[in-house]
């Protein structure tokens, strides 16, 4: 049997382990990326490792929070620039664009491995890279030359056939897959796309699909590197970095799904989950108050040319606020030069900065109960900044249809001529907003008062006594655990940010943990299925750790969040019997005895002292991960 593409790339980077589903492999990392909201912690951790210059091709982006409402944000940016300069990291200034869009354009390379402290890092899988979202600590270790460990996944092949009909977009393909596979239960899977349908899908369209693999919860998604990829590299003046990469014809897969592109119709993910997908036709007629095009999912040159062509000579509906955030300076500059930007402005669109902005709740919060149609990838409750905001996820085509009519509208019924968007043969190349590092060891790293030390955990005690501080249900996202938006500016200040853990779920959470601490008890989080979906933000582990959380008891845990918990020394256990989830209550006091021994078993017994019973839990960590947890996290483990 031949090899699939994932296996080919991993075997070229394999440092330890066997490539079998479920076993841990260590791999060499070629490239890393970070963004401002999670970069500061990654670089503070990197500094703590004492390595002078990174061993990887690394880029530090500023794209998430550029509002600079107060000194914190600007201070963080200056810290990032100086620390990058000193340690050999390229620095992409605010305004240069969204990390995944820029990385795809300027740094991606078929066959390379990339990890990034952002869950949408798999976007670069569009050009045949193995690109994965991880916690900042893992990025720090890779930059220092250490291996990256992952559980070898199962490979799901998605065979695409035929081609999309007019007005049906790449976004509709990935929404269709979300309908089929949902956001739950795909941990430990990698998606490889193949089939004749590839021929008609351009690199930016492929990137929309790999980008939202993050919402499926898969480890990564990848496309082969073919002639379409070559054309993209040529147009980016980087043809020499291209190489062809295909799976073997008789490659092995764990599962195969067929998807007929000609049957895909405009789709819409309804509040409050990316897998709550219906057809646009089913939701048509709903009044819309806000439309936003942008984010790392849909802000490419192709997308914005489509938007401009649909807007040309028309006006945005009087009741709609329509914002457009181009994905990168390259995109913005090109649409400015070819007149497309003017068509947007004339139609009444609001031109926003080339950043994540609205997507991460930095501005553009919708009105009370407002319906907002967006081209991005997440519509978790409250993420927009308005708790009762109703966010729907759609293609740029469907966005414009709503912006013009004021209602959810299937773009096929608008009666417009379908624009023929031709991708440029040459993109505008100007990398002047990427600052090359001096690697000068005497550079003074700027540290504003908002930047603290990364807190360390203590080793796991031999007898762990803890109290359940919160019990939550299924599909708790990292946005529930560690809200972004207005609190983003505290990302470098853990003691301050920790006050907001579970802020919108139980505002008393931090206080309860502090109370447990006073009584000499650790805290426990109890959760349902798919705990920790969404963002890679390690603060969702780091801040609970700071508050004294030592154990997560859940029905299941998502990959990146699970890895972050281990990195910060929080033990994750899953219920052997769901009935035990039902029985346990907030405030219950729990005990795990003989931790050194207990943690090395696949079954760990937990005593519920309050209710007077003991129950069994599963521990699925690898031996290395168990040792990390015992040490109280990766920093302690590495030091040891
Ligand atoms: C997101 O889309 O949720 C973010 C903001 O990009 C996060 C990173 C973060 O929390 O800073 C992600 O996806 O990892
Ligand atoms: Fe930025 Fe949104 Fe993409 Fe996250 S999902 S990287 S916030 S654009």
Topology:
Elements: H1 5-11, E1 14-16, E2 24-27, E3 31-35, H2 36-49, E4 57-61, H3 71-87, E5 90-92, H4 99-106, E6 113-116, E7 130-133, H5 136-143, E8 148-151, E9 154-161, H6 170-181, E10 189-194, H7 203-211, H8 213-216, E11 220-222, H9 227-235, E12 255-260, E13 267-269, E14 277-279, H10 280-283, E15 290-293, H11 301-311, E16 321-324, H12 329-337, H13 340-347, E17 350-351, E18 371-374, E19 390-393, H14 396-405, E20 434-435, E21 464-471, H15 478-481, H16 494-497, H17 509-518, E22 522-527, H18 539-547, E23 549-554, H19 559-567, E24 571-575, H20 578-583, E25 589-592, H21 595-598, E26 603-608, E27 613-618, H22 623-631, H23 634-639
Parallel strand pairs: 3-4, 3-6, 4-5, 6-7, 9-10, 9-12, 10-11, 15-16, 15-18, 16-17, 18-19, 21-22, 22-23, 23-24
Antiparallel strand pairs: 1-2, 2-8, 5-20, 13-14, 21-25, 24-27, 25-26, 26-27
Helix pairs in contact: 2-3, 2-5, 6-7, 11-13, 11-14
The structure holds alpha-methylisocitric acid and iron/sulfur cluster.
Main traits of this protein?
640 residues, alpha/beta, Aconitase, domain 3, Aconitase, domain 4, 3 domains, seven-stranded mixed beta barrel, six-stranded mixed β-sheet, 27 strands, 19% strand, binds alpha-methylisocitric acid, binds iron/sulfur cluster
Write a compact overview of the structure shown:
By secondary structure, the protein is of the alpha/beta class. Helices cover 30% and strands 19% of the residues. The protein contains 23 helices and 27 strands.
């Amino acid at each position: 049997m031949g090899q699939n593409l994932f296996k080919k790339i991993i075997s070229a980077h394999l440092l330890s382990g066997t490539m079998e589903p479920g076993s841990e492999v260590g791999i060499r990392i070629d490239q890393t990326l970070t963004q401002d909201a999670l970069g500061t912690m990654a670089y503070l951790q990197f500094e703590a490792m004492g390595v002078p210059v990174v061993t990887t091709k690394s880029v530090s982006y500023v794209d998430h929070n550029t509002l600079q409402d107060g000194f914190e944000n600007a201070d963080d940016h200056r810290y990032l620039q100086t620390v990058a300069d000193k340690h050999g990291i390229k620095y992409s200034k605010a305004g240069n664009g969204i990390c995944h869009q820029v990385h795809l354009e300027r740094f991606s390379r078929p066959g390379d491995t990339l990890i990034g402290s952002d869950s949408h890092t798999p976007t670069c899988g569009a050009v045949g890279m193995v690109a994965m979202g991880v916690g900042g600590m893992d990025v720090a270790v890779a930059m220092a030359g250490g291996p990256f460990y992952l559980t070898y996944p199962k490979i799901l092949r998605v065979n695409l056939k035929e081609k999309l009909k007019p007005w049906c977009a790449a976004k509709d393909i990935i929404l269709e897959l979300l309908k089929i596979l949902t956001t739950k239960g795909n941990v430990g899977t990698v998606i490889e796309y193949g089939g004749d349908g590839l021929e008609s899908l351009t690199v930016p369209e492929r990137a929309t699909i790999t980008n939202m693999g993050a919402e499926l919860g898969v480890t990564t998604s990848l496309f082969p590197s073919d002639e379409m990829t070559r054309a993209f590299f040529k147009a980016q003046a980087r043809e020499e970095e291209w190489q062809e990469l295909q799976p073997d014809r008789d490659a092995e897969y764990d599962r195969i799904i067929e998807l007929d592109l000609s049957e895909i119709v405009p789709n819409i993910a309804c509040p409050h989950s990316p897998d709550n997908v219906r057809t646009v036709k089913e939701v048509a007629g709903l009044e819309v108050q806000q439309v936003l095009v942008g984010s790392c999912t849909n802000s490419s040159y192709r997308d914005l040319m489509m938007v401009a062509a649909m807007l040309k000579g028309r006006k945005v509906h009087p009741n709609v606020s329509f914002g457009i955030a181009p994905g990168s300076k390259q995109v913005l500059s090109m649409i400015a030069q070819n007149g497309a930007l003017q068509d947007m402005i004339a139609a009444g669109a609001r031109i926003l900065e080339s950043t994540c902005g609205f997507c991460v709740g930095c501005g553009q919060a919708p009105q009370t109960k407002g319906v907002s149609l967006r081209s991005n990838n997440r519509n978790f409750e409250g993420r927009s900044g308005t708790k009762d905001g109703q966010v729907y996820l759609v293609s740029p085509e469907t966005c414009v249809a709503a912006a013009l009519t004021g209602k959810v509208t299937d773009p096929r019924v608008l009666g417009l001529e379908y624009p023929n968007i031709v991708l440029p043969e040459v993109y505008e190349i100007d990398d002047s907003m990427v600052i090359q590092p001096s690697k000068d060891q005497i550079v003074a790293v700027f540290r504003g008062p908002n930047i603290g030390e990364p807190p360390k955990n203590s080793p796991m005690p031999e007898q762990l006594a803890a109290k359940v501080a919160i019990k939550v249900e299924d599909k708790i996202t990292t946005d529930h655990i560690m809200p972004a938006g207005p609190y983003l500016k505290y990302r470098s200040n853990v003691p301050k940010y920790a006050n907001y853990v579970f802020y919108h779920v139980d505002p008393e959470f931090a206080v309860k943990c502090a109370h447990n601490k006073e009584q000499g008890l650790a805290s426990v989080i109890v959760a349902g299925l798919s705990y920790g979906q969404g963002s890679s933000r390690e603060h969702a582990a780091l801040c609970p750790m700071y508050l004294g959380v030592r154990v997560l008891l859940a029905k299941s845990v998502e990959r990146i969040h699970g890895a972050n918990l281990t990195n910060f020394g929080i033990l994750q256990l899953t219920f052997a019997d769901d009935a035990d989830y039902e029985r346990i209550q907030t405030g219950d006091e729990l005990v795990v005895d003989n931790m050194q021994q207990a943690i090395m078993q696949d079954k760990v017994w937990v005593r519920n002292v309050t209710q007077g019973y003991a129950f069994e839990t599963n521990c699925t960590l690898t031996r290395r991960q168990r040792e990390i947890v015992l040490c109280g996290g990766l920093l302690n483990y590495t030091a040891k």
